[in-house]
Amino acid sequence: MADVLGKAVMDFQQGNYTEDIKTFSSLDEEDVIPVPYLFRDFKEMPKVEQKALKLAKGKILDIGCGAGSHALYLQNKGLDVTAVDNSEGCITVAKERGVQKTVLSNILDYSEETFDTLLLLMNGIGLAGTLSNLTAFLQHLASLLRPNGQILLDSSDIIYMFDEDEDGGYWIPNNGKYYGEVTFTMQYKGLKSEPFDWIYLDYNTLQNACWANGMECELMVSGEHYDYLARLTHKK
Questions:
Q1: What region holds the Methyltransferase domain (predicted)?
Q2: Count of other CB atoms within 10 angstroms of residue 145
Q3: Residue extents of the structural domains in the chain
Q4: Count of C-beta atoms within a 10 Å radius of residue 206
Q5: Cβ-contact 150, 116 below 8 angstroms
Q6: For residue 197, what are the β-bridge partners?
Q7: Whole-number pLDDT of residue 94
Q8: Which residues of the chain have pLDDT under 50?
């Protein structure tokens, strides 16, 4: 699979930034990911990310680390953080930027150590792909967590993207799928990714999935754009 994200962050790191990543989704939306945004510092981050970084403690795993901005911030605060991503380009750039502990792996293939904090930022729960994969994904995350550990993740309820009727309900296509399931492709400088599944979870759906899998789920902060930060812990 073309490492679209990796190529874009490598270009930026090497001073060859000329364009952004284009994304195309099954919601008929075309969008861009501005590459400089992947290199943002703490003050440029949305409040859900800032809150997560303040709550992170102990031994930390930054899942889907991208260019390493979150890991770097935590490392600079003296915390023990490992950055994991399945993009070779992202891991190369994270190392070049100074992240000391990196792992090139799909998170579902990783089981080397356990942690006090798992971070899944920039809608990291999206890595689960679909609602039907959510149970296995949460169980795998729980297996990486120490007894008193926490998972900090942000997501968005994308219900606002659907048409609203007069009585406040939403017109959601009846295709048998959860409305937060989206298929994306990414494009950058002639490179195009294979289509991949990504999920945006409304908070109630996440909470119910956590309870079904023996985990507590707590809403830590709500953002300005239907987004939120949740903390997941083992049930006591």
A1: 60-149
A2: 20
A3: 4-234
A4: 23
A5: yes
A6: 183
A7: 97
A8: none
End-to-end CA distance of the chain: give it in Å, rounded: 41
The yes or no reply on domain 4-234 and CATH 3.40.50.150 is yes
184, two tokens: 């994306």
CA dist 90 → 16, 130, 205 (Å): 15, 24, 31
Among residues 119, 105, 42, which one has the least CA distance to residue 77? 42
- Residue identified by tokens 């950055």 is 83
Query: Quick count: other Cβ atoms within 10 Å of Cβ 102?
Result: 21
pLDDT tens by residue, 20-62: 999 999 887 788 999 999 999 999 999 999 999 999 999 999 9
Burial label for 190, CB within 10 Å (0-12, 13-18, 19+), is exposed
Separation between Cα atoms, residue 6 and residue 55, nearest integer Å: 28
Residue matched to tokens 């959860």: 178
Residue 1 CA to residue 15 CA, distance in Å, equals: 24
CA–CA separation, 143 and 120 (whole Å): 15
Say if residue 109 is exposed, middle or buried (CB neighbours under 10 Å; 0-12, 13-18, 19+): exposed
Q: How far apart are CA 31 and CA 69, in angstroms?
A: 22
φ/ψ of residue 117, rounded to 5:
-135, 125
Note whether 69 and 44 are within 8 A (CB).
no
What are the beta bridge partners of residue 229? 154, 221
